[in-house]
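JOB MANIFEST
job_type = single_chain_structure
chain_count = 1
residues = 834
[input]
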Amino acid sequence: MATGEQRPRADWRRRFGLVLGLERMLADPQPHLLSGLALRPHQVDALAGMLAALMADAERGDDDEDDAAPDDEGAEAEEVEPETEDDEDDDESEVAVDVVPDDPGARRRYRFKHPTASGKTVAAAGFVDSCRSVGVLILTHRRLLVDQFTRDLTEHGYGPRIVPAIDKGRRVPTLPPVTIETYAWFIRHAATIEPTAYGVVICDEAHTALGERTAATIRKFNLPVYIGMTATDQLLQKHVGDVFPAEIADFPLGDAVRRGVVAPLRALRVQPGASLRNVPVVGGDYDQKVLAQALDHDALNMAAAMYYADRFGDRPGIIYAAGVDHAERVASALRAVGVKARAVSGRTPPRQLAETLAGYERGETNVLVNAQLLAEGWNAPRATICMQLAPTASKRVYQQRVGRIMRLHRRKEAGVVVDFADPGAPHSDRTVTLHSLLDADIYRPGALVTPKPPRRRQRWRRQARPVVREADWLLPVADDPLRRRAVITTEWKTVAADRLPQDEQLVWAEVAARRLAPTDSQKLFETLLKMSEPARIHFLATAAAESKHRSLRLTALGDLASRRPDANTFDRVVRLVEAAPTWAADRQAGARVLLLALASGTLPGSASQKRSWAWRLGRASRDAQLRAAADGIPGIRDRLRGLGGPRGEGSNARHRAALEIVRDAHTAPRGAAAAVLAVATSQDPIASRALDKGRDELTGEPEELAEALGLNIPAPREREKPQKKRRRKPKPGARQRMPGGEAPEPVDADTGGDAEAEVAEGEEGTERANGDADAPPPETSEPLSRAKRRRRRRRRRAAALADPVTGESPEPHLHLVKADPGGPAPSDAAAAAE
């Protein structure tokens, strides 16, 4: 204005055109494009971040005017080797250049990260709208995306500004131009572009601009402001930061799903039919030729086609194959099983490719099989299934693949990714999976890997149903041992323990044994059947030692004894029953279980070890053994008392008592003899040696000794659930006085009235007729008190449950783990379980 010019100079527009345009656009309460499309919050954040970065650089004085334009003569003299589109696609194989110390244009190169399918094209249109006084050059890596950008910008009202590239010497149009080209074209024609025509360069898929020649060309054409858009910035942070140093916005995939910007993702894993161990990794990904040789077999192709047809039917999807020929054969297999499928590749003519993609959008084709053709930039909102038939070792390639099914559609609840990988493969595996890409800790078949999207209720539209159902089991897939252990600890009920490695099976067994409840026994039983034998034994040993439930401790102890554990494990279990505080109230029951297991003769160990275990378990059940000894040997209690007393006092008496006990044991029945020698202890060394000699002289095998000691311990009785007492309702007028003036007798709430008392008297008469000595004589003159009636019912109940021969109650048989066919009967080992 000071010089009287009609329009601003090119350097002024380059410095202030984008800043003023962003201020104008963001001043609107709802920023929108020319077509009226309102920008979403994350797109507005990208524009605001760009404005903040430009203003901060201007205040710091970073945008100096000493940056000279590239030397035209030097640029023309130095021929840049032409680069094809195919070379640009394989950007990971190129060596990214290091940070150049003298790079004056680096301060004007920015980047923002938005996930695939979140609307980066709309964000680019927002920058185009802001550049109303400066030209914009848009670069992408495929000719297909050039056409897509042209179509989208035209729909949003910027078609009149789209013109071919302006070469040097041509007049710059009054309306700021918008030119859309590929990186390969930019490498060949950067030296001939008019430097004042474009003040902003938008680089789509900026991670594909990391090639050595592309990056060098960007550094030479250094006057404009560069804006890089990428979805894989976090995967190649160092390299993208070299070319586009300043980050202006970051929109993670998880936030995009939570806000409902992109569709969530579910995951399925299929066990691969071919091994990839011999397939080398070249340039960051599997060698495609070797990969095709390993995967391209008729049986595998037909199996994949049948899996897709059975699992998804006619759901629209996309399949990535290893090579063009592999894609053709997979498409033929899909058509053979009734799926409308077509194969597309780089060999497909452009006209036929456009017709095929249009037919896919119309629903004429439901599955597109391709080999890296539709990995980036292709938009298909109806695509729901992404099958990774050709696994990849590149996270960039994988993220671009799954991005094809992340666009929202009214009939899509979530995209489904099918990975051909082992269900328990960790993140450290070479093959990239959805869980390794998102660093997820848990794999549950069919479950959401991304966060849950917001629930949107629309009365006129039914919510889409999930394509797959979630399984009831899961596996930890993180490569960090601490994270895997945390998953096993928190999700132990649903972890597929049989699929875990051996060391993690032991971790799961320990956690499950400590937290097991009686209601979990059935499901846990099915899991334990599939696990290794060491893990089962570890589980049973831990449950017997640390379970909070008495019945589970006894059951685990019996199952452990029936599985023939090694000698060291059984010795630890014996020590557990001897002294563990958790067995303070159940030492007799635990000792009986282990003694009967010893009596079966199937446990490992020498004869001396077994005899030692039997005597130790006998001492642990002292009360029961003392009663058995008193019943079999008269006066034995007095002799046992003779073994007591302080040490050093009455040693001769204690020695004589020990000899008498040994003599009585030799003449007594085996059960009583074993019992008295098990409980006889003395602090006098001479008496102790005499008792030890008597134990050694007791004839018989260790199994016979264990059986005798085990039978001395009575089996615990089964507890009955208390039955609710039914109260009899009084008849109408029952509380009225009788004609004689006497009130009727009140109904006894405990017995249920006179009728129930008569039944009780009839039962008592039957018991006396059958010879029951314990049954008291019937009382006819005086009514029984409530306490007597309770005692009488208890005696009748105990007599009804007792075995008529042994007088013992029947024992329940509850087992967590079935015994081996060749092992002992589990009923003998777990007879004491409740």
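[summary]
The chain has 33 helices and 16 strands.
The longest helix spans residues 41-60.
exit_status = 0
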